[in-house]
Amino acid sequence: MGFLARIFAGDKASCSEQDAVLAIDIEMMYCPVCDEEYRGDMTHCVSCDVELITGEYKRSLLQQKMIGRAPRSMLLRDDEAMLTLQKGPMKEMKHLKTLLARVEIPARLLSDDPALGKCCGGPQLYLQVRETDRDEASQILHQDFQKSTHLASHNLVGMDRAIDEGRRENSCPACGHLFTTGQPCCPDCGLVFSA
């Protein structure tokens, strides 16, 4: 049993909870299943084949456990207030739903297309979470976006110059999709053009 697994299991003989929080290096990555520690540039656990979480996020999980926050229910009721965080292809939305589930944030995938999957390019789904989970879920999705696009390591100064406001249509600098000038983000890949 890993160090953090003992902490989450309540093995207080091994060390205090505060020591466990301090032992988490925020520059490192951690497996949410086996608690193995990885370098900051790693993305998957070799043993469990799951995506790693940041040390900062692991630390916040442990701190939440210390303050006694009740575990979040993964069951979504029909009467709960939900909001849409993102719309995209089925494969991507399923990935994001799984990512949120790994950190105990329940999500729902919905479609407004009655012919789900019968059109060219596949169905577009809406990823929804509870309103109360909005901020935490948005942070997780933002981290995943930065990791998958490597935008966290790029200097985006001058990005606004890639869009010519005088033209009726522009091409997205990230994916090449043509869009009507004035849109705040690319309708295809979601790249944000304006703050």
From TrEMBL:
Pfam families listed in its UniProt record: Zn_ribbon_3 (PF13248)
Superkingdom of the source species: Bacteria
Domain Putative zinc-ribbon positions: 169-193
Entry protein name: Putative zinc-ribbon domain-containing protein
